[in-house]
Structure formats: C-alpha cells, structure tokens
Amino acid sequence: MDSSRNTISMHDADNVVVALRDLRAGQELADISVVLRDDVRRGHKIASADVAKGETVLRYGQIIGVASTDILAGEHVHTHNLAMGDHVHDYAFASEVPDFELVEKPREFSGFHRDDGKVGTRNYIGIITSVNCSGSVARFIAEAAERSDWLRQMDHVDGVVPIVHGSGCGMSSEDEGYQTLFRTLTGYARHPNFAGILLVGLGCEVMQIPDLVGAGRMRAKDAFRYMTIQQTGGTRRTVEKGVAILRELAEAANEARRKPAPLSHLSVGLQCGGSDSYSGITANPALGYASDLLVRHGGTSILSETSEVYGAEHLLTRRAVSAEVGQKLIDRIAWWEDYTARNGGEMNNNPSPGNKRGGLTTILEKSLGAVAKGGTAPLSGVYRFAEPITQNGFVFMDSPGYDPCSVTGQIASGANLIAFTTGRGSVSGFKPSPGIKLATNTEMYERMAEDMDLNCGDIISEGVSIEEKGREIFELMIRVASGEETKSETLGFGGAEFVPWQIGAVM
Asked: Which CATH number belongs to the domain containing residue 173 in this structure?
C-alpha cells in the first residue's frame, strides 16, 4: 500500500476508515475527501460518511456494531458512539468451500521422530503434576536437575519443564471441568516435544495418578514414569527419586537427533493477544497467508479463542467442509453464550482495555480481524479444548480468548509450534512448544524488538505485500520448527504459561 496515506479502508462497502498515524482535528483527509472533526490516534476509526443513530457500522465489509448516536463524516468512531447491537448471521453451512489443492512437492523441517509416529520441534523432559499440591515438589525436582553436572552434559536435551497448575482437587470427578483437565494433562504427557515424562501426584487428590495412567499408556514405557509424594515418603525422598528418574529419561532423550520430516507433522497454533486495530490489517492476514501455505504443504493450523470469533463465525461456517463441521462450531458458540450469561458476563466483555486503546471497539470488530489468522483454507474440523487433533488442514479448537489458556489447549491438542500476533506487545512463551511473536505495527516492533521475532508493520510503513510477509512467516515457521531459537525462548519464557481451562465449581 501507499505509505503516504493517512487512512486505510478495508472494503468498498465500509463507512469507516482506520487512521494510519495520529491525526489532528481540522485536517483534510484527501484519501476520503473529509475534514477531520476530532483528534484521532493511530489505529482508531473515522467515519467516512454520515451514519444515523441505529444504523450499522461496517468494517471489512462486515457489521462491527451500530451507531449509538448520530455520527457525522470525519468524526472519531469508538466506544462513545458505537455499540454492539444485535447481530444475526446466515451461517450458510459449507456453501463456500474453496478448492484447495496440496502442493506436489511439500517442504520438510528437521525434527525429532518419536516412537508413536509423531515429530517434535523440541526435545524436552517434562514433569507433569496431577494437582497443585505436587507443584512445588515438581519444581524442586526440576531445579535440582538443572543444578546438576549431568544435565549440562546432555547437548541434545533442550531442558526440563515442570508443568504445574492450580487445580486437580476440590472439584467433581465427573463434570466437564474434570474431563477438560484430564484431556489437557494427557495431551501434554503425549506431546512430541517431550522426549520423556515424569508424572508426579500427591496421592489423595481427585485427579488420581492411577486414573491418568490407567486410561491407556501415555507413551512408551522407557519414556514415561510416575509416582506420588505420599507413597514415595515425602518431599526429600520424592525429589531424590525424581532427579534419578530424570537422569535416566535424559540419557535416553540425548540419543535423539533431528531428521527430515514432511510438514504434515507440523501443527501450528494460531494466536493473537494484546491486539490493536492494525492486527486485522497486517499481522493477522499475513499469518493467514502463511497458514494457507502450511495447509497446502500438508500441515495443520489451529484457530481458537471462541469468544474472539464471535460475530465472525459465519465466515468460518461457510467454508466448513460439511454442515456437520459448521454446526459443531455454532454449538460451541451457543455454549459460550450460555456460559458467559450464567457467570454474569457477556460476549462483548472482550475487547480488553488495551485493545480499546489500540482502536478496537466491539467484539464483532475484534473477531473479524482475528479470523483473518485462519486464511482461506476449508475448515476441516472443530474440536473441544485439548481434544487430540486427528486430521490435517485448517481446524478450530474451542477455547477462551485468554491467551495462555488458549495456547495451553492448543499444545495439549498437538500444536508443536505457536504463531502469535500482537499489537500492544505481549511477552510470553509456551514450553514445550516454541512461540513466534509477530508485531502488527512498526512503532511497537522497534520499541520491543528484543521480544518480537518479526515485524509485520512494514505492510503499512514500507508497503510490503500481505503475500510477501506471509511467505516470510512461513519460512520462519520452518526454521523455528527445525531448531532456530525464538526471542521468547532466548529470554527464558515458558515456565509460567501452562494455564488449564478451569470450568465448574471449586469446592
């Protein structure tokens, strides 16, 4: 695009444009032949035509809300004059399924091949806890191992990751919350980025170790061990035994070497957090282009954050491969409407304050930009939180919009790489899966370059095309999957972002 422009319109039908720089009242906007009536910050919306109270406001050619008062051309459009309003969509299930052919010679990455046929992008040892009560002991074991000389000699082991959380007891053993946590822990225990797993419980918790193990062997015997603190004899003995087990697991893991693998073994979780109004203009559509490339090469991309596709779900149901797949998504939307209502919330509680400062106003607007991460590929499946993803292609996994929780579900479902767009500047990491950070605007990228892996703001500041940036993201995905370290890995992130979705009563 022309970097000298002051505003950008996303669709011919739109009656708002987005400011590309801070603008002052009285300034003539030659782009849209309008004189600006208010000061408007970069990323915020400006009415390009008069909009009467009650009329719909359009961005991306889609409804993002209704005018809560009369809006004149040139006025700032935001929370003071734009409301959610009612929205009803025609889901038109499977009516616009695109033709999407795979490439003849798919690309490869270099990964760790596991006995179950999966391929990891990293080679960690994991300590998974069944309950919060074993969390400190799991950390003690990891800290003791990392102080040891033997672990430092394991050149092909990426480290030890304690997976601790705040649940596992004080809950029903038969409700949705239990099943969700059960899937999450099982998914991490079987994740290909872990070469070996030590499962640690207290002994008296609701989430019993025998139940987790008895549901089916989580992985090969020589790569999976378990114990409880009460049966082992307390903290000191458990730490001693745990360190000895980790050494055995690490010695076996250190024999692994990266080998070529087709991209059909690469599963990428698509995320956005700390979004701004540029997210739907730069990084998200560029990531969507990269997602399409991955799917064409046989890989899997996972869109999530159900509360952040609300209002844009009709764009996904139209390209669902069947009415059944489309209906699964709508069923999850209906669940969320009930879930938020019975907990005293509403779907429009999101965008967050930071999102609004960045120019986003309603969840409808945020969702339309967020869905762009999913590209244009057919929607081939819809999954529950942390449910194993069993098919390749573009899929959807139900989750909250809270990023650490959503990524936790994606990794439990099998994502061995995370691609994360951000406009405000999110800092986080997601062990055992590396996370690529994609900046939506050049200003934030330059301010937080030590945390951001790639700038997508140059789509606006330098006129780089969406396609070019998408190919750049795709190539970065392959390099990171093959071992290149991300900024969040260099900084040591990933030890605090395991956040299972806690549903139901805490008793």
From this structure: 3.40.50
Residue 354 has a pLDDT of 86
- Smallest CA-to-CA distance from 375 within 299, 432, 485 is with 299
Asked whether the predicted pLDDT for residue 33 surpasses 80, the reply is yes
**3-class DSSP assignment, residue 214:** helix
Domain containing 31: what range?
Answer: 7-83
42 and 149 co-located in one domain: no
pLDDT of residue 179: 97
Looking at the 3D structure of the chain, how many domains does it have?
3
**Alpha helices for 389-439 (secondary structure H):** 403-413
- 3-state percent breakdown (helix, strand, coil) of the chain, nearest 5: 35, 20, 45
CA-based nearest residue to 424, from 42, 9, 77, 1? 42
How much is the pLDDT for 458?
A: 96
Question: Do residues 194 and 124 lie in contact, with contact meaning Cβ atoms separated by under 8 Å?
Answer: yes
Looking at the fold, whether 377 and 322 belong to one and the same domain comes out as: yes
Q: How many angstroms separate the CA atoms of 465 and 333, rounded?
A: 33
> Does 456 lie in the same domain as 327?
yes
pLDDT tens digits for 330-379?
999 999 999 999 998 887 766 788 889 989 999 889 899 999 999 999 99
